[in-house]
Amino acid sequence: MKYADLHNHTTASDGLYTPTQLVYHAKCNGLDAIGVTDHDTTNGLDEAKIAGERFGIEIIPGIELNTQMNGIEIHILGYFIDYKVPWFQDLLRTIRDARNNRAQKMVYNLVNMYGMDLDFDEIKSRAGGRENIGRPHIARAMIDKGIVKDIAEAFEKYIGEGCKAYVERYKITVTEGIELIKRVGGVPVLAHPGIIRDERIVNEIIPCGIVGIEAYHSKHTFQQRDSYVKLAKAEDLIVTGGSDCHGDGNPMVGDVRISYENVCQLREIAKST
Ligand code: AMP
Ligand code: FE
Ligand code: FE
Ligand code: ZN
Question: To 5 degrees, how large is the angle CA 77–CA 78–CA 79?
Answer without folding.
Answer: 125
